[in-house]
Amino acid sequence: MSECKKVLLLGDSRRMGYEPFVREQLKDIAEVYGPKENGRWAGYTLNTLRFWMNDFPAPDLVHWSCGLWDLGDDYHLGRPFSLPEEYESAVDRTVIVLRKLFPGVKIIFGTTMPVGDQDPTDIESYNDIMRRIAAREDIPVDDLCGLMKGRMSTYDAGDGLHLNDAGNAIVAAQVSETIRRYLLQD
Fold it and tell me: What does the radius of gyration of the chain's CA atoms come to, in whole angstroms?
């Protein structure tokens, strides 16, 4: 490979945890970068792309994982922050925007990981939305949920949500391998 590829990681605060590990693991083939800011929910990431993109070179590949904030009931309304149809719309439009901004970019979706040992049914329903869009748009899916299901409490950073360094290393290994596989297809 003659030139260093550019990889953009997008996602919530969990992405911020594994990003340094991915950067290290891919340093031989890619420059890995991501926003310094938490991508929060899918609609926030979609809206904020226009501000973040000025800070980065055009990526060859984007690995994106948002969904946990979308599922949260932060205002105790008895519903997710983003209803399923809102989440679907934001994911759909993010694909459109990324492809418009960066023609030819490869996109990989990372599924939302579970929270502790909680029942992941709600998370899986949003992951299914992402998988449907991925199938329709020919986007590979990196199953981070499957990787960490039943393992979250073992790798808890102490807040019931984020991963410790060992957990981030496990997720980063899979993210890096997935990215490497698609970058080397060129």
Answer: 16
Q: Which fold has domain 5-183?
A: Rossmann fold (3.40.50)
Q: Could you report the average pLDDT of every consecutive run of 10 residues in the chain (186 residues)?
A: 86 97 97 96 96 92 96 92 97 97 97 88 96 98 96 93 97 98 88
Q: DSSP characters for 126-159?
A: HHHHHHHHHHHHT--EE-HHHHHTTTTTTTB-SS
**Burial category of 97 from C-beta neighbours within 10 Å (exposed 0-12, middle 13-18, buried 19 and up):** middle
Hey, where are the domains in the chain? 5-183
φ, ψ (nearest 5 deg) of residue 140: -70, 150
The model carries a pTM of 0.95
Q: Which residues of 107-117 are buried (b: 16+ CB within 10 A; e: fewer)?
A: bbbbbbbbbee
What CA–CA distance (Å, rounded) separates 31 from 6? 5
Report whether 59 contacts 97 (CB < 8 A).
Answer: no
